[in-house]
Write a structure and sequence with these properties.
Elements lengths: L7 H8 L19 E3 L2 E3 L5 E2 L7 E2 L1 H13 L1 H4 L12 H4 L5 H10 L1 E5 L2 E5 L6 H4 L2 H12 L10 E2 L4 H11 L2
Length: about 170
């Protein structure tokens, strides 16, 4: 994915109509990494994805997503995205959400009313600890959703690429 288009999916996601169900179904084949730009992997559609080596080494962004998820999201969504009594199993949700839908939900939040029970996902669009790492969280959950990443902290990771350092400095305002 060319550098000039890195933020296009976020803009498109914010323009999607809320509540429109997706016909998307993710699996190992769709999630396969086909390109790599500065240590960040993309699938055939240009969406961020993960790369796990045969020895279990995960790419930096998947590892970072694990860390960010466990610092900001697990309180509601449970360890490793396994869900809780008041938030869904994200490892299942990511099987049917597109990248754009994921971005929209996290940035804007949403309310659901199912069987008389209301659930609320708050907006994280202004939380830099989430917003600056949305792709990382997405690729981590995507790896969990398609079954390529087991529960728990990844044992091995790639080194943090300079592009990740630069993005973090820019996004966090440092």
């Amino acid at each position: 994915m060319p550098s000039t288009f890195k933020y296009v999916p976020l803009v498109l996601a914010l323009l999607l109509p809320a509540g429109v169900p997706s016909a998307f179904a993710d699996d190992k084949a769709a999630a396969a990494a086909v390109t790599n730009e500065d240590g960040k992997y993309f699938d055939a559609e240009g969406s961020p994805t993960f790369k796990i080596a045969e020895d279990g080494t995960v790419d930096w962004y998947t590892y970072s997503g694990y860390r960010r998820f466990n610092s900001e999201c697990f309180v509601c969504h449970g360890a490793d995205g396994a869900g809780s009594s008041f938030a869904p199993v994200l490892a299942d949700s990511l099987k049917v959400l597109t990248y754009g839908e994921f971005l929209q939900i996290v940035a804007e939040g949403r309310k659901n009313l199912t069987a008389g029970k209301e659930s609320v996902m708050p907006s994280f669009g202004n939380n830099k600890n989430v917003y600056c790492y949305l792709d990382d969280i997405y690729v981590y959950l995507r790896a969990r959703a398609v079954g390529d990443l087991p529960r728990g902290r990844p044992a091995k990771k790639e080194e943090k690429p300079q592009a990740a350092k630069d993005h973090e400095t820019s996004c966090m305002g440092g």
